[in-house]
Specification:
heterodimer; A: alpha/beta; Amidase signature (AS) enzymes; 11-stranded mixed β-sheet; 17 helices; B: mainly alpha; flat
Chain lengths: 508, 98
């Protein structure tokens, strides 16, 4: 019985909660049990907040029996990426420098989740400060891919994606600076959506690159992503880059899409995001998905975005520059780790250097030093300034492409999940994972990854749908249409084809 | 071929306030070349006539009414401090002089 609950999508579970078939306490306990059974192998969670989750669940159940008006996802448990601050729950961002830190406040999106009555199951593993594409840069060990425990779950949000893929949680929160929601979605067979920049408040996210970061939903279905996006999104006065407008109707768009009619919709295939460097099975599934969209009535056209070729280079100038500035707050003075220098005078400056030398991992040091170099005297215009010009060019490419098409599509990632260690010593190879996802961050447009089959190696592949800024509803409509059609041919969700995980017997 | 020298890495690490071990300086000296290659490619298209974009969605300054907001309590703010004294953060000597 408990396993049945964990297999439900969030919207299915919400329906069962609403009609009283299942209580939130039962649902929450079922997911906590599942975590206890499988997370020893997966390591998707850095912290499990069982007590708090069950208390929230009991409260929601009581409010429901009292006849209170509840939101559509009330009582549905959720996992939160550890880069999002949670009052009273440890928040490390995957870094030793924040080990044991308990934030004194909630991120806006966490406030909204709490207000809507979603029990928080815990905090999920990630690359340190969200820097990575494999979760191998976490200071707390690798998260494993539920499809193959020898492979990466993507990154930086590998914990959230693995948790959802392994039925440890029906919903999770991710953050996406260059693809950290979408790429883990692709390699774990789950749905990951990056909203329009400014669509979800960044207040309370531990920032990596402020002009690129965006939080969003990690789920198993497109409708669930739209529902969660509606819950966490919308204007927040505490984030000055938050868009002061109402969100488009996202869940309605997903329901419309699932009905399967895409007549009149123009789908643009981005020429520069295909071909060389894309695994054969990835390209094959992509081509089939285009056929599926055509069969639903969409018109598929090819568009060219010539400057996307430079996006990766611009990203790896902008992101470290902003990260080096954002991470300056980890100075060992007010919170987090403090390390005394081993010799010489004990000044604030030397304590800061010793603290950061000890507390930051290799990839964080690399990016902070790279960014400091790019911003240092004499280089600013040539480096950061030039990269910002490429941003303009990428935006112009998007604008021209959206004149010809309503949505743009590509494979989400060039390959399926690779093995641990395969790309760890080659930062450039690691960065190439994000080649198809980065342009959206540079331009601020929304994107979603939807599972679209298995590659020749039996591992999941993702299909990326990009929409114009503030038109997030379009990506949910197209994503839901593709999902519904593919699930008909598969006879169920793609995750039903994932191998069963070994479970540890519960001692509870 | 490394265009960013060991000395340059050590200097930048100093600016970034990160103590590096000698082996880390060696490794980074090789790896930071990636930025030089990136800038070479970006420079091909980042010509003088292209304006820079700082944020994806155009923004102007955002103001709120000048009304006091609820702030964190002193106790909450100090709760995670490595050291504290008399309700304040206790930090090492700020200036390096004797």
């Amino acid at each position: 019985m408990t396993t049945d609950i964990t297999r439900l999508s969030a919207s299915e579970l919400a329906a069962s909660l609403a009609d009283g078939t299942v209580s939130s306490v039962e649902a929450t306990q079922a997911h906590l049990d599942r975590i206890a059974e499988v997370d020893g192998d997966l390591n998707a969670f850095l912290h499990v907040s069982a007590e708090e989750a069950l208390a929230t669940a009991a409260d929601v159940d009581a409010r429901r029996s009292a006849g209170d008006e509840l939101g559509p996802l009330a009582g549905v448990p959720i996992a939160i990426k550890d880069v999002v601050v949670t009052k009273g729950l440890p928040t490390t961002a995957g870094s030793k420098i924040l080990e044991g830190w308990i934030p004194p406040y909630d991120a806006t999106l966490v406030e909204r989740i709490k207000a809507a009555g979603l029990p928080i199951l815990g905090k999920t593993n990630m690359d340190e400060f969200a820097m990575g594409s494999s979760t191998e840069h976490s200071a707390y060990g690798n998260t494993r891919n539920p499809w193959d425990l020898d492979r990466i779950p993507g990154g930086s949000g590998g914990g959230s994606a693995a948790a959802v893929a392994a039925f440890e949680a029906p919903l999770a929160i991710g953050t996406d600076t260059g693809g950290s929601i979408r790429q883990p979605g692709a390699v774990t067979g789950t749905v990951g959506a990056k909203p329009t920049y400014g669509g979800v408040s960044r207040y309370g996210l531990i920032a990596m690159a402020s002009s690129l970061d965006q939080a969003g939903p990690v789920t198993r279905t497109v409708l669930d992503a739209a529902l969660l996006h509606e819950l966490i999104g919308g204007h927040d006065p505490r984030d000055s880059t938050s868009i002061p407008e109402a969100l488009p109707r996202l869940a309605d768009a997903a329901r419309l899409g699932a009905a399967g009619d895409l007549k009149g919709l123009r789908v643009g295939v981005v020429k520069e995001l295909s071909g060389e460097g894309y695994q054969e099975g990835v390209s094959a599934r992509f081509a089939e998905s285009l056929d599926t969209l055509r069969a639903l009535g969409a018109e598929v056209v090819e568009v060219s975005c010539p400057h996307f070729t430079y996006a990766l280079d611009a990203y790896y100038l902008i992101m470290p520059a902003e990260a080096s500035s954002n991470l300056a707050k980890f100075d060992g003075m007010r919170f987090g780790l403090r390390v005394q220098p081993s010799e010489g005078p004990v000044t604030a400056e030397r304590v800061m250097a010793a603290t950061r030398g000890t507390g930051f991992g290799d990839e964080v040091k690399r990016r902070v030093i790279l960014g400091t170099y790019a911003l240092s005297a004499g280089y600013y215009d040539a480096y950061y300034g030039s990269a910002q010009k490429v941003r303009t060019l990428v935006q112009r490419d998007f604008a021209a492409a959206f004149d010809q098409a309503d949505v743009l599509v590509s494979p989400t990632a060039p390959t399926t999940a690779f093995k641990f260690g395969e790309k760890l010593d080659d930062p450039l190879a690691m960065y190439l994972n994000d080649v198809a996802t980065i342009p959206a961050n540079l331009a601020g447009v929304p994107g979603v990854s939807v599972p679209n089959g298995l590659s020749d190696d039996g591992l999941p592949v993702g299909f990326q749908i990009l929409a114009p800024a503030k038109a997030d509803d379009r990506m949910y409509r197209v994503g839901a249409a593709l999902e519904a059609s593919l699930e008909k041919t598969w006879g169920g969700p793609l995750l039903a084809q994932a191998p069963e995980l070994k479970t540890t017997e519960l001692t509870r | 071929m490394s265009t960013i020298s060991r000395d340059e890495v050590a200097r930048v690490a100093g600016l970034a306030r990160i103590d590096l071990r000698p082996d880390e300086v060696d490794r980074l000296a090789g790896e930071l070349d990636v930025i030089v290659e990136s800038i070479a490619r970006v420079s091909q298209v980042a010509t003088a006539d292209v304006p820079a974009t700082s944020h994806p969605i155009p923004l102007t300054n955002v103001f709120r009414d000048d009304v006091p907001q609820q702030a964190l309590s002193q106790q909450d703010v100090l709760a995670a401090a490595p050291e504290q004294e008399d309700g304040r953060f206790l930090v090492p000597q700020i200036l390096g002089e004797e």
